[in-house]
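Could someone model zinc ion with this protein?
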Amino acid sequence: MSSSKKLTSESTFLYQYPLEELSNEVKTLIERAKEASYQAYAPYSGFRVGAALLLDNGEILKANNQENVSFPVGMCAERILLGYAHANFPNAVPKKLAIAANRSADANSQATVSPCGMCRQTINEYENKFGQAIEIYMLGPNEQVFFAPGIDALLPLSLMISTHECFLSRQ
Ligand SMILES: [Zn+2]
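Reply:
Sure, complex below.
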């Protein structure tokens, strides 16, 4: 094992901000995510997630989770949103993604949520396609916002398929 190397990522971290300190643009995006969460279809878990995406053309799109009686069929808000965005605006670059969740329609029941593994991989896909990081804002309780400057912060050493390079070459 003398030739082994420890491969690490230094990009895994989050910032935490009070909502009030963020820009009006981000506050608006988070508000859209909250609105979307109230309209989520989550009759089985009661866990409603909303997501809002700002594109570089100024468009703000939103979506929410859609559950199914056959549980694996259900889809996360983030994947529905990113798929819709790319289906309808294939040349628009996703810039900022906001996510909010609650366990009831009560505005005070804000839950902390971060994207699941499949959604992280989906975000990674569109970052790679456009060659630009997508800022991710996750609203938590007490008007606190967790911020990741890009998917690297949530998905270090992510999957890349290449015969000529490995993830280390991205750094
Ligand atoms: Zn997900």
